Structure to design on (430 residues):
């Protein structure tokens, strides 16, 4: 079913919207949640939460890209759930991915001074727009989808060392980009 | 105070287009390009009804950058949306599993630039580790390509292999390239590679079943011809009701 038809079902308050969403995007939503939570049961609950959230948001929202809309909710819901359970069930792979982003900060130190989250997102968006498609996809797979290096290497047909060096270079360039925009000044 | 977690959360808000784009890994573009080249090869080598001497670039294939289907589409869905009703399996016995499907719009142009033929094809991608195979399904047209590798349930399963050269969109064709295309030594897919020129060995396994043409496309020897033939047999059996 096309996305427009699924969204139409939400607007009609037709509960088939949920089953149509699950049929088309269920596996994808679970995979995003699973990368963060590393727990099948939690990921399934996260998937259900995404359907409830979608039902509550559409309408009034009309997602321009349904996949990204659902994926973003899956990521946020999974992260909230992860934070809640973090003390008991730490996902070391996720922690490693997040810690890599320390290299984007100047000299690995936290930055003093307030940077609006939206400003930072906008800057990262601008940076991604200017980078090559290959490196952008690898970066997004690592830090948005939270894929492991091995998963990325396997899916892209690259060696793990190539993925690592690509990510390292991208992080360095992002750091310089943010500095040029005055977002990394201490 | 900003820390790495803030950066991670800021990345969570990036534009939808980057999230969509990353659904489809870089190398997943290749099988769709393979399809483009394969169709071109079919036009060149066998489809006598459609000006058999046309070169690869007379075929234009457009597929969505994001797949139409992220889960296996049912025959009924495909009948409603494409007018054809193949049964699409979620996996094959050798481990290739469904990874997404797109509907591509294909047009063949004549020398005067007019459209000679339009057709819609279903392109399903199956992955096994790093390896990807494209299953293409569409209406039967022209003559089948390749040599008969097997006959299964009265259907000829044909195999064809050739060299494809994937080049960036700004690539200027050389005299050797044109000669190679004319002689069938290799075929060129302009825009098939993002940066450097890549030469790949293409494999096609194709067969017809109940008024539809099916073909597997793969490259660089990720899978053997025997495996492709076995997958074709499984696919034929699967058409009997969706159970393998």
């Amino acid at each position: 079913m096309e996305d427009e038809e699924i969204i139409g079902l939400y607007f009609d308050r037709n509960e088939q919207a949920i089953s149509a969403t699950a049929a088309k995007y269920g596996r994808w939503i679970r995979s995003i949640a699973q990368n963060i939570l590393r727990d099948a049961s939690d990921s399934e609950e996260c998937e259900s939460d995404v359907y409830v959230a979608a039902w509550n948001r559409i309408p009034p929202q009309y997602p321009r890209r349904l996949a990204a809309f659902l994926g973003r909710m899956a990521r946020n819901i999974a992260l909230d759930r992860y934070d809640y359970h973090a003390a008991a069930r730490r996902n070391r792979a996720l922690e490693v991915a997040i810690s890599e982003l320390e290299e984007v900060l100047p000299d690995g130190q936290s930055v003093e001074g307030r940077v609006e989250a939206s400003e930072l997102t906008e800057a990262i968006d601008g940076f991604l727009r200017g980078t090559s498609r290959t490196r952008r996809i690898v970066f997004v797979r690592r830090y948005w989808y939270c894929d492991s290096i091995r998963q990325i290497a396997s899916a892209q047909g690259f060696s793990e060392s190539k993925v690592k060096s690509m990510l390292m270079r991208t992080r360095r360039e992002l750091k310089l980009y943010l500095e040029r925009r005055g977002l990394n000044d201490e | 105070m900003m820390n790495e977690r803030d950066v991670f959360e800021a990345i969570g808000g990036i534009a939808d287009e980057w999230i969509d784009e990353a659904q489809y890994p870089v190398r997943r573009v290749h099988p769709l390009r393979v399809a483009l080249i394969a169709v071109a090869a079919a036009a060149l080598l066998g489809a006598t009804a459609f000006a058999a001497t046309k070169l690869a670039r007379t075929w234009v294939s457009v597929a969505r950058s994001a797949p139409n289907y992220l889960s296996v589409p049912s025959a009924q869905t495909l009948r409603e949306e494409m007018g054809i009703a193949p049964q699409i399996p979620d996996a094959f016995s050798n481990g290739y599993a469904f990874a997404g499907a797109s509907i591509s719009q294909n047009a063949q142009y004549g020398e005067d630039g007019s459209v000679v033929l339009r057709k819609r094809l279903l392109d399903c991608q199956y992955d096994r580790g790093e390896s990807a195979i494209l299953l293409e399904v569409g209406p039967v047209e022209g003559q089948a390509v390749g040599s008969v590798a097997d006959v299964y349930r009265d259907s000829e399963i044909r195999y064809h292999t050739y060299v494809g050269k994937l080049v960036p969109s700004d690539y200027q064709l050389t005299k050797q390239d044109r000669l190679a295309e004319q002689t069938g030594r290799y075929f060129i897919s302009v825009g098939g590679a993002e940066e450097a020129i890549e030469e790949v060995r293409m494999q096609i396994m194709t067969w017809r079943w109940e008024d539809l043409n099916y073909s597997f496309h793969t490259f660089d020897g990720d899978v053997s011809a025997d495996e492709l033939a076995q997958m074709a047999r499984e696919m034929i059996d699967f058409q009997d009701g969706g159970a393998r």
Summary: The radius of gyration of chain B is 19 Å. Chain B touches chain A at residues 1-23, 25-27, 66, 68-71, 77, 81, 127, 129-130, 194-195 (CB under 8 Å).
